[in-house]
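Input record, target 12 of the design panel.
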């Protein structure tokens, strides 16, 4: 049987549609959300707030199970992000430093870095700090992570949290903290004009704001 050129085009189109549908159906049947392309650089970029060219850089080493880290994030870093990061004065970099004494801190860090890989660091970090007393009591972190994400985002984060790439990202932060001599959290390093100053502990927002303002006046 000889098909006309138009009929051949229709057949090819139908075959292409059928192939696409079968592929989409297979993805739905598997129940797996397609993972975005993630690299160590993508994770690192996702763990930052603001623009890299900001005059002040703050590297914050945090343990998600640490009450002092919770207070620093919610009461100091949150207003800092709104008032100094948002206007280009401060570049804030999150580093994971789960302490051995905290049973669930490293797993929480995996979830946060996985969220960073899809651009949801702030959302997941904030909810884990807000509900720290609950998940740190029984290790049930996942429900709090997924509660602030869409179903697709939740699947991506849960899968990424199990990958060696995310685990390596956390360990790289820990190794960096060890090299810098960190032994408690939270610890921040504030860099301005090449000079780096360590600040240890749960410093209040008025004190941090005053220090940054003084730096910017120099």
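The sequence produced for target 12 reads:
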């Amino acid at each position: 049987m000889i098909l006309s050129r138009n009929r051949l085009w229709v057949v090819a189109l139908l075959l292409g549609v059928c192939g696409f549908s079968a592929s989409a159906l297979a993805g739905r049947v598997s129940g797996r959300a397609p993972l975005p392309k993630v690299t160590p650089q993508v994770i690192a970029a996702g763990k930052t707030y603001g623009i890299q060219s900001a005059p002040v850089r703050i590297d914050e080493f945090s343990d998600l199970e640490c009450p002092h880290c919770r207070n620093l994030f919610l009461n100091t870093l949150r207003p800092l992000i709104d008032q100094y990061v948002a206007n280009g004065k401060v570049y804030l970099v999150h580093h994971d430093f789960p302490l051995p004494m905290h049973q669930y801190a490293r797993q929480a860090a995996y979830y946060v870095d996985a969220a960073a890989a899809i651009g949801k660091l702030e959302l997941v970090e904030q909810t884990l700090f807000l509900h720290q007393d609950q998940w740190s009591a029984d290790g049930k972190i996942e429900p709090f992570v997924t509660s602030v994400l869409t179903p697709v985002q939740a699947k991506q984060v849960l899968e990424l949290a199990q990958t060696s790439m995310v685990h390596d990202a956390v360990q790289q932060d820990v190794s960096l903290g060890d090299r810098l001599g960190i032994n408690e959290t939270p610890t921040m390093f504030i860099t301005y004009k090449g000079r780096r100053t360590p600040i240890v502990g749960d410093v209040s927002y008025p004190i941090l704001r005053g220090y940054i303002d003084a730096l910017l006046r120099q």
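Residues 1-31 have pLDDT under 50 and may be disordered.
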